[in-house]
Amino acid sequence: MMSSWLPRYEFKSTLSQRKFFKKNAKDFRGVQRVCLLGFRVADNLAISDVARVFGLRTSAIRYYEQIGILPPPVRKNGQRRYEQSALFRLAVVQRAQESGFTLDEIRELFFGFRAATRPPKRWHELSERKIAELQLRMKRLKLMQTLLKQMQDCRCNALEDCGKKLLSKSSKERNHAHLR
Q1: What is the 3-state secondary structure (H, E, C) of the chain?
Q2: What does DSSP say about strands 74-76 and 45-46: parallel, antiparallel, or unpaired?
Q3: How far is the CA of 89 from the CAs of 85, 128, 135, in angstroms?
Q4: Considering only CA atoms, which of 11, 2, 36, 1 is closest in space to residue 94?
Q5: Residue 156, C-beta contacts closer than 8 angstroms, at least 6 positions apart
Q6: What is the pLDDT of residue 61?
Q7: How far apart are the first and last CA of the chain?
Q8: What is the pLDDT along the chain (180 residues), one digit of tens a residue?
Q9: Half-sphere exposure of 96 (CA within 13 A, CB side)
């Protein structure tokens, strides 16, 4: 299972993004910088430009291509050039990651449904699973919190005493469960 990673991009433009747009305004064919959030930008962006827009490393973008989340870009003079559709797809990828989806789940969002399946149905199905997973995690976290609070009340003189009490307690709990 691939691990998820948290993106640095926020939906407000950062200082580095503002500097990027100021420096590269000609690449955006006169479109105002605030329109980036609507992703109305020029085609044929270099990988470094796309990386800056999303606050990613270029290696992350290449990895997305390698695992099939991003389609291979057009190449001009050996350099990757990205169309608007790649930016739209990266926006979906980042929103999914911000929502806690793993790369495997994101790949399923794009490719795990019949082609005719509309986005709301895709999001709904995956979100239902993710919500159930989060509820289970929250339950586990609550149990961990309870156990940690119990451990704070420890009055043992040695860790072996703790182990003895824990084994005795779990043995009693198992026996009690069998009697039910």
Answers
A1: CCCCCCCCCCCCCCHHHHHHHHHCHHHHCCCCHHHHHHCCCCCCEEHHHHHHHHCCCHHHHHHHHHCCCCCCCEEECCEEEECHHHHHHHHHHHHHHHCCCCHHHHHHHHHCCCCCCCHHHHHHHHHHHHHHHHHHHHHHHHHHHHHHHHHHCCCCCCHHHHHHHHHHHHHHHHHHHHHC
A2: unpaired
A3: 6, 22, 28
A4: 11
A5: 162, 165
A6: 96
A7: 39
A8: 444 443 443 334 444 445 555 555 544 443 333 344 444 456 789 999 999 989 999 999 999 999 999 999 999 999 999 998 899 999 999 999 999 999 999 999 999 999 999 999 999 999 999 999 999 999 999 999 999 999 998 999 999 999 998 898 877 776 666 665
A9: 24
Residue with tokens 């085609």: 43
